[in-house]
Specification:
The chain is of the alpha/beta class and about 270 residues long. The chain has a single domain, classed as Vaccinia Virus protein VP39 (Rossmann fold), CATH 3.40.50.150. The protein is about 40% helix and about 20% strand. Strands 3-2-1-4-5-9-6 form a seven-stranded mixed beta sheet. Strands 7-8 form a two-stranded antiparallel sheet. InterPro entries: Methyltransf_11, SAM-dependent_MTases_sf. GO terms for molecular function: S-adenosylmethionine-dependent methyltransferase activity. Pfam families: Methyltransf_11. It comes from Streptomyces pini.
């Protein structure tokens, strides 16, 4: 899809995320929405909603949607998608977009202003336990919360490329930290532990294959860098070094036609407020 004029004025990582990378998680979004029968009687609250594709998919099913994020550039694109100006065409759903507060989470009072959610999701960025607890309190009792993350490294072909971010950032993975936009191999209990620290009760889980496919090596590098997982590596080195080493890590996945393909497994946990 060609970018709109407004999208062209967004930072390049935001455009790359929306145009290249975000769609790689569509199988995850679809699996969760199918499991919870998201439709016109649903209100989906997306934490770390990014540029809003997952919420657009929920809204297309008839759901009311609310999104929150601290990345203002991505949030602006979510506003364009979910709250279009009249000249961009009429929308046929009810949506709200909320900025994140100083601690990274949406304001509890703002959450309570709208209808209570029937489903809370954290697909791309995991909130910390304190934020998740506050959101759960605002949502009320008996609401499912879906926390998603990478599966085991051995089931994710992208893992070697993602390790480039850790190595260049000159710091080890932090196994005790299960929140934020960072990569670490998916442990069996990490998402459940986050849910319990927030006072939630784990109540099921699932695994979803999310293959990453790119038109060429340049698109693959741009798409992965747009995730935010390489930000610390860029600060520690520079964009050119990150792109060079990431391209080398991706070469084993380049097909004869020049496309790049990696099979990855994502997992999610359902927890009840």
């Amino acid at each position: 899809m060609a970018p709109t004029l407004a999208q062209r004025h967004l930072p390049r990582p935001t455009r790359d995320w929306a145009e290249i990378q975000e769609r790689m998680l569509v199988p995850l979004y679809e699996a969760v929405y199918e499991r919870f029968e998201v439709g016109r009687h649903s209100h989906v609250l997306g934490l770390g909603c990014g540029s809003g594709l997952a919420l657009v998919m929920a809204a297309a099913r008839g759901a009311t949607v609310t999104g929150a994020d601290t990345d203002e550039a991505r949030l602006e694109l979510a506003r364009q998608r979910l709250l279009p100006e009249p000249q961009w065409g009429a929308r046929h759903w009810t949506a709200r977009v909320l900025p994140g507060g100083p601690d990274g989470g949406p304001d509890g009072a703002a959450l309570r202003e709208g209808p209570p959610p029937t489903l809370v999701t954290a697909f791309d960025t995991l909130p910390d336990a304190a934020v998740l607890a506050r959101v759960a309190q605002a949502a009320g009792r008996g609401v499912p919360v879906v926390l998603a993350g990478w599966g085991p490294a051995e089931r994710c072909a992208a893992a070697p490329a993602l390790r480039v971010a850790q190595r260049l950032a000159q710091r080890p993975a932090e196994p005790e930290r299960a929140a934020g936009r960072c990569w670490r191999p998916g442990g069996r209990d990490d998402l459940e532990d986050l849910a319990r620290r927030a006072g939630l009760r784990p109540d099921g889980s699932g695994r979803v294959a999310c293959p990453f496919g790119y038109a060429d090596l340049d698109s693959a590098v741009r798409g992965l860098v747009s995730t935010g997982l390489y930000d610390a590596a860029v600060r520690a080195t520079d964009e050119e070094q990150v792109a060079k080493e990431l391209a080398e890590a991706l070469r084993p996945h380049v097909r004869p036609d020049g496309t790049v393909w990696m099979q990855n497994l994502f997992r999610y946990v359902v927890a009840m407020t």
